[in-house]
Amino acid sequence: MRCCANTDANRRRVLFTLGLILARGMALAEEQDPIEVLRAQLRASEGRWWLDADTAWRALPGPWESLLRQGTAMPLKVELALLQPQWWWGERMVWAKRWRFELSYHLGWRQWRLRQGESVRVATSWQEAVAPLAHIRGWDAMAKDIVHPASDLVALLSCGVDDERLSTTLRLAATRDASIVWQSRPFRWRPWPA
Asked: What is the pLDDT of residues 19-50, one digit of tens each?
């Protein structure tokens, strides 16, 4: 009789635990990535392939904003890659291109700056500074004869902090602490469907 009396208490514990797991899972599912690629396409014009994409730069992690406000420049990147699936192993990279930027904050002028090469965009907020990365239109991707359109090619577009250009200290901190990751998940699409 005693084991039967415990089953209700055990059942309640199990149901409570499952409820907590389910609630946590739903909360994680609702959390949005700090950067997300919403749409991307390659279009042909004038003998070249041009990239058009929409991205959402939602949140700047606190540690990055603190470093930027102290004068540390943050290297950013937008990467486009074409992959060919292979049956014997993963995927083979056919072609890739990386556009590099640098986000910084000028304390004296209280200005955010997005730099690419010699050109600089000055803004009053980091969201306004990265606005050109949110609405990518007509970025020169490649000449038309470099890659022949094939239905099996998969394109990947990702954006975020350029880990290769970070200092060693910041690179180590970024790999150890998931709360300061400022990357998008790679957006996969077929640029030339069958």
From this structure: 655 555 544 444 578 899 999 999 999 999 99
Alpha carbon distance 8, 3 (integer Å): 10
Structure tokens at 46: 């004038």
- Name the phi and psi angles at 63, rounded to 5: -60, -35
Residue 83: closest CA among 75, 91, 74? 91
> Taking every pair of C-alpha atoms in the chain, what is the biggest distance, in angstroms?
84
Rounded Cα distance, 128 and 134, in Å: 10
**How many angstroms separate the CA atoms of 156 and 98, rounded?**
12
Half-sphere exposure of 177 (CA within 13 A, CB side): 13
* DSSP E strand stretches across 10-90: 35-45, 48-57, 74-85
Name the 3-class secondary structure at 1: coil
Is the pTM here over 0.90, yes or no? no
